[in-house]
Specification:
A hairpin with a 2-residue loop joins strand 1 and strand 2. The longest helix has 26 residues. The chain has 2 helices and 2 strands, in the order H-E-E-H. The protein is of the alpha+beta class and 75 residues long.
Length: 75
């Protein structure tokens, strides 16, 4: 039970750190901002980005995450 509580606390902390990064990034005066988003629809990885190189990086990361999550379940 203690391990699950620690995971919940870590998840909440990561959520707040992400929100802080978003706020700091939006406040900064950088004009050339590259962004990207990746995820899964079922087992299919997808991504959106405003830079083609960044899109390839996101797709590769989502494929690696797919392999990490799917292959251990076959044991």
């Amino acid at each position: 039970m203690k391990k699950m509580e620690n995971l919940i606390i870590i998840g909440i902390v990561l959520l707040f750190v992400g929100i802080i990064f978003i706020l700091v990034g939006s406040i900064s005066s950088s004009k050339n901002v590259k962004f990207g988003f990746g995820g899964f629809i079922g087992p299919i990885p997808f991504g959106f980005a405003n830079d083609p190189r960044l899109l390839w990086i996101i797709i590769i990361i989502t494929i690696i995450l797919l392999i990490i999550f799917v292959f251990p379940s076959f044991r």
